[in-house]
Design a protein that fits this description.
The protein has 4 helices and 5 strands, in the order H-H-E-E-E-H-H-E-E. Strands 1-2-3-4-5 form a 5-stranded antiparallel beta sheet. The longest helix has 20 residues. The relative contact order is 0.21.
Length: 143
């Protein structure tokens, strides 16, 4: 099953979520990374049955540096999922009227690294499973 990312973006706008998210963001641009760098830590980790390389990500913001470990895999399926999620993130930022260049910069840097799909980011984000096949009707329901 193919998820139409453009349709999801239109639905975000249609239900007024763009206005809600804009209010939620407020002046959040002060903590948006101006630079993101990643370096391999020389070890591997298995997450949700997928093998990946461990990196340290360093994001520089006006409030200092933030560091986190992440695990990435060159599995094409994971890369496709990540590409779709990054597109949703970009479209959401655009939908709320935020300065796209400020938010796009770190996303572009991560994409340019060409490291693949993220399996784990710190302790906040971890892939639990990845299933192939059609999405059951009603599993994703937007108002």
């Amino acid at each position: 099953q193919v998820i139409d990312i453009e349709k999801v973006t239109r639905q975000i706008r249609a239900v007024g979520a763009d206005t809600f998210l804009a209010g939620l963001l407020g002046n959040a641009t002060s903590d948006v990374p101006t630079d993101v760098s990643m370096r391999p830590l020389g070890r591997r980790e298995t997450v949700a049955g997928h093998d990946g390389e461990v990196y340290e990500a360093v994001a520089r913001t006006s409030n200092g540096e933030q560091r986190a470990e992440l695990v990435v895999s060159d599995d094409p399926q994971l890369k496709a999922v990540q590409d779709a999620l990054l597109k949703v993130a970009r479209d959401t930022v655009s939908a709320v009227g935020a300065d796209a260049s400020v938010y796009a910069r770190p996303l572009q840097q991560v994409e340019q690294q060409g490291l693949g799909g993220v399996l784990r980011y710190g302790e906040e984000l971890r892939l639990v499973s990845l299933e192939q096949g059609p999405i059951a009707p009603g599993r994703i329901a937007l108002p």
